[in-house]
TrEMBL record:
GO cellular component: extracellular region
Gene Ontology terms: biological process: [2Fe-2S] cluster assembly; protein complex oligomerization; proteolysis
Family: Belongs to the HscB family.
This protein's name: J domain-containing protein
Coiled coil (UniProt feature): 84-116
Compartment annotation: Secreted, Extracellular space
Amino acid sequence: MGVDETYDLDEEDLSKRYKQLQRYLHPDKYANRNKMEQEISAKYSSLVNEAYKTLLEPLPRGIYMLKLRGKQIEENTVTDPAFLMQIMEKNEEVENAKTEAEIIKLNKEIKLIIQDLQKKLSTAFFGANAQSIRVLGGSTTTIQQFPVVAQLLLDPWDKGQYSQHCAGVIITSRHVLSTAHCFQYSSETGYNYSDPQFWRVRVGSSFRSRGGFLHKVKTVVTHQEFDRYYFTNDIAVLVIAKKFYFGDTIKQATIANKGTELMQNSLCTLVGWGVTQVGGQQADQLQLATLFTVDQMECSLRYKSIGSVISDSMICAGHIDIDGIDGCFGDSGGPIFYKGVVAGLVSFGYTCGNRFYPGVYTKVSYYVDWIVNAIRRHK
């Protein structure tokens, strides 16, 4: 086809090259030629068709590129469940769109996500260093260092099979603070995940697969004005069926005081069990990363370019000089700390670890009254 050996292909250029080749090779051009020329034309026209289809579709293109590098996808490879949940959420947004303008906007966002993913895949296939896709988070830590962190385990298909999906922080012996977007209806499964039966809470363990203590959830309280599209008011409180017993690995968090604001470039700490590599699996052991708060106006302008709104109830934090350090799938609802105090909760972002779009966190200090009222009303 005459295109560069890269996953990040220009589809318009690919289409032009395909059409140019078919102008010369299509069998209709050789209808009046001898039989041999007709057979050669048909053979090579068919090869060009197959090549075009392979390069046009993301999955066949990726498999082909791997073969060029002497690699292949193993037979027992499974789809990353965190990635599936991301796709489910995006499908829900499209299904819930009410106007043509919303659908067009979502299509543009999806196209940008695909383009960004293709660039990262191209780097992964052909970059000289496999570490060019950076580890999201950076290093392992233990629950003894962050005993206020809780895992939220989801049973997505109501089959009694729970696995860590979101995170939160312990704020009383019976309450965990998290984000509302974890507890929404899924059109993909047909279940409403605000129902407490779908959840378990694990505390006191560094590992998402074992250890600590499992607790049933009595009630899920999400903010009544949570917006699933703009992620405003992305906050929730879980009421646990039986109280936590505090110790070295289970403690009560200190949350930011009402109205507290962080200065630009404040050093924060993010912890969670999210994916440690773009497109990779979630970490089994608790991870830690350091982030810097980003100027609110700067963050707002950046997200405005993709139609997202950064409100006063949000904090932006990340590394705007390098890609790769960020919260990601599986970290949702988990905390960022400033000097040991819970300042924010992982809410949303544009892909993971994109330096132009820092992670967005629910500003805890904005919701102190709501949190206190939720605890008083639901015991």
